[in-house]
């Protein structure tokens, strides 16, 4: 009789996950990676996800959940209610921590008591274990909101059989607070408080890096960039000290969700075998936005948070000249800093019929933009991984990216062999402008452009490869 294989049990701790709640790439990773891990043909991983039960989780989802039990979480002098719910979706079991005081709010982040909210959640992860009938070998925590999980395991719970992994998705947000939160909220033993001490205050991400058995991040190049003071937002001394346990693994995308051959939001489905539908999507997008089309003028799109690290100052430094010269039509979807939002509102007025800026977030419309655009712009100063450049390839919108982080790892220049898009290195409006003009010039060569689009449509940015690397990392930490 064949001996049953023992699976490595992973509890993936996240502050957000699609389709329940999400604000960015972490929410997509927190769904797609566990699904890919559980679907591996080796069947050697059982990955489950735990996250807060936010008030914005739909009633439809709530009706599918099973109540497992209720308990109490002690947070310094507080005793807070903890409810635990469970549901299964796409082969993954999800657990939800219910506390309406902390999580029944209009948005996920940005509150004055965020430190308290996520310290509570981190302790609740351990409290929930008594209800979920799942004892993880590894707890995999993500970003600053979950950074206290490896800290509490190391300094408080100390379960010798349990390992911890911490993933940095964006080092800019580290969970930095004044020292007063140590006694009032976090409540570590006195001889362990040094784990969170950094530059005169508390730094949650610093504690996670120090305490986790492995620290991963979302692309190989970003792992190297974290050692650089210019791109580490002050955490580089701690990261260099722990460099031996840092791993860089390039994210993937969920190719079931992002699939132009089946996407119901598109007017016409298409693929590399039948690419003609993209032209219809281009026409439909232009009609929807009131943009006149020209066969020799590409539609260039951005879908982004409008903040400085995304390279918005490069765009504002050259977009008027490009529009004045009729080089591109420009479509922007996103929200962000007030100054950038104001600039792009005014840009529409300065260039009527050439620009459309939608200051909102709309998932379905974003896929229509990917499908209708000829080019996709990501000139980031810092980009840990980025998913949009992979999605744009999936939809045949040729990416224009700066070589940083995951953009450098995923997009090669098409002016070389087997390139996927247009890349540039120097962080300046002038270099971005030169690259866009070069892309627009190639766009006029219809045969060359069609080959490039077909090449990108054939690319596979799915999670299978990355899931295998994550599985190897899990097995490594268990040795």
Count up the helices. 19
Strand content: 15-25%
Intertermini distance: 27 Å
Tell me the total number of β-strands: 18
Strand order in the sheet with the most strands: 3-4-5-2-1-6-7-11-12
CATH domain class of the largest domain: Alpha Beta
Mean pLDDT score, rounded? 96
Low-confidence stretches: none
Q: What value does the Rg take, in angstroms?
A: 23 Å
Question: What name does CATH use for the topology of the largest domain?
Answer: Rossmann fold
The CATH architecture of the largest domain can be given as 3-Layer(aba) Sandwich
Query: Can you tell me the number of structural domains?
Result: 2
Class from helix and strand fractions: alpha/beta
Helix content percent band: 25-40%
- The CATH homologous superfamily of the largest domain is called Glycogen Phosphorylase B
Task: Tell me the overall shape.
Answer: globular
Major pleated sheet: 9 strands, mixed
What does this structure look like?
- By secondary structure, the chain is of the alpha/beta class.
- It folds into 2 domains: 8-252 and 464-477, 3-Layer(aba) Sandwich (Rossmann fold); 277-458, Glycogen Phosphorylase B (Rossmann fold).
- The chain contains 19 helices and 18 strands.
- The strands form 3 sheets. Strands 3-4-5-2-1-6-7-11-12 form a 9-stranded mixed sheet, with helices on both faces. Strands 15-14-13-16-17-18 form a 6-stranded parallel sheet, with helices on both faces. It has a 3-stranded antiparallel sheet with strand order 8-10-9.
- α11 packs across α14 and α12 runs parallel beside α13.
- The radius of gyration is 23 Å and the shape is globular.
- It starts with 7 loop residues before the first strand and ends with a helix.
- The model has no long low-confidence stretch (mean pLDDT 96).
């Amino acid at each position: 009789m064949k001996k049953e294989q023992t699976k490595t049990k992973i509890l993936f701790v996240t502050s957000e996950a699609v389709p329940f709640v999400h604000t960015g790439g972490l929410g997509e990773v927190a769904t797609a990676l566990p699904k890919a891990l559980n679907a591996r043909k080796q069947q050697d991983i059982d990955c489950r996800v735990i996250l807060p039960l936010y008030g914005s989780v739909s009633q439809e989802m709530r009706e599918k959940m099973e109540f497992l039990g209720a308990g109490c979480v002690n947070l310094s002098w507080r005793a807070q209610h903890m409810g635990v719910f469970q549901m299964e979706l796409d082969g993954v079991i999800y657990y939800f921590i219910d506390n309406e005081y902390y999580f029944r709010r209009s948005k996920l982040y940005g509150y004055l008591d965020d430190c308290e909210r996520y310290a509570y959640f981190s302790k609740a992860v351990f409290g929930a274990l008594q209800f979920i009938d799942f004892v993880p070998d590894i707890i995999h925590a993500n970003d600053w909101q979950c950074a206290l999980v490896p800290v509490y395991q190391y300094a408080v719970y100390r379960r010798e059989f349990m390992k911890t992994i911490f993933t940095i998705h964006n080092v800019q947000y580290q969970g930095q607070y004044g020292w007063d939160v140590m006694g009032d909220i976090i409540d570590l033993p006195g001889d362990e408080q040094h784990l969170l001490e950094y530059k005169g205050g508390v730094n949650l991400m610093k504690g996670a890096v120090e305490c986790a058995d492995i620290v991963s991040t979302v692309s190989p190049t970003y792992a190297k960039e974290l050692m650089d003071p210019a791109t580490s937002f002050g955490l580089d001394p701690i990261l260099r000290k722990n460099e031996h346990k840092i791993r860089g693994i390039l994210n993937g995308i969920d190719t079931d969700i992002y699939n132009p051959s089946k996407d119901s939001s598109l007017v016409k489905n298409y693929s590399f075998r039948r690419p003609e539908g993209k032209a219809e999507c281009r026409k439909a997008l232009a009609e929807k936005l009131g943009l006149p089309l020209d066969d020799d003028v590409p539609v260039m799109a951005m879908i982004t948070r409008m903040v400085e690290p995304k390279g918005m100052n490069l765009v504002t430094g050259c977009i008027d000249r490009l529009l004045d010269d009729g080089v591109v039509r420009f479509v922007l979807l996103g929200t962000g800093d007030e100054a950038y939002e104001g600039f792009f509102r005014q840009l529409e007025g300065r260039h009527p019929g050439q620009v459309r800026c939608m200051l909102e977030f709309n998932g379905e419309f974003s896929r229509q933009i990917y499908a209708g655009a000829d080019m996709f712009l990501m000139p980031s100063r810092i980009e840990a991984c980025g998913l949009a450049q992979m999605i744009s390839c999936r939809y045949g919108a040729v990416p224009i990216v700066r070589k940083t982080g995951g953009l450098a790892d995923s997009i090669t220049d098409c002016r070389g062999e087997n390139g996927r898009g247009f890349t540039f290195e120097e962080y300046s409006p002038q270099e971005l402008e030169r690259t866009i003009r070069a892309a627009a010039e190639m766009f006029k060569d219809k045969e060359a452009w069609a080959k490039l689009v077909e090449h990108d449509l054939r690319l596979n940015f799915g999670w299978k490869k990355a899931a295998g690397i994550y599985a190897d990392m899990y097995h490594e930490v268990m040795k």
